[in-house]
Amino acid sequence: MDGVEALPPLRETIATHGFDARKRFGQHFLLDLNLTRRIARAAAPLNDGTVIEVGPGPGGLTRALLLEGAKRVVAIEVDARAFGPLLELQAVADGRLELVEADALRIQPRDLGPAPRRIVANLPYNVSTALLVQWLHAATDIADMVLMFQKEVVDRLVASPRTKDYGRLSVLAQHVCEVRRLFDVAPTAFVPPPKVTSAVARLTPRPPADRLADLRPLERVTAAAFGQRRKMLRGSLASIFADPVTTLEALGLRPTARAEELTVDDFVKLAGALDGE
Length: 277
Prior knowledge:
The chain is of the alpha/beta class. 35% of the residues lie in helices and 18% in strands. The N and C termini lie far apart (65 Å).
């Protein structure tokens, strides 16, 4: 046995380096190799292009990606303390692991390696939504994303109209990607255990011809509509349309409807109308 498989168990590595999870980084370490390999397999194929991991921490998921045959992993970590265990992993990874000490919010996927680029990550809870929205804007540069969030975030990602979880994130994600919930992960799988259940989702960007080239108008209309979701659209959209009633009626939408009643395609029509004003 050699390489990644010869490394000591992750708990031992963490203890050796005195690497404890910090709340300010949103850290919860995933130590179960069977579970991390399940996540890695969900992102297959890994044997070409670049796999981007954000927030590897001590490297549990990173190990799994390498064991599942990833050709090249770029791991982005903002916490310098993680580089003790990560450098040990890099030393046995046969040149397949690149480490980047940086804030992932400041990096574009296209700058991290050749296509196809797959993002696979147990995301830090405190920046998970911000990261996802950034990646939705950069979807042309991404082949696939397999991401772990708090379960409530995945509930929002897959939500249908007229449900309580349907909102701005649902519309943005479903317009840009095919979104699929894969499986839930219990708090006991992490060290330290979070107070909530987590869930893994796969988001596969749609062909460029099937989505807006610029998401900013869609962000504006969803922010306005869901920002005041109890209001009728004729009221909630008054801040961004000079005459929301006329605009809505021209698109075949009821001015008295509320945001959660509109489909993703309805919001795309509104974004087009906003872009034309």
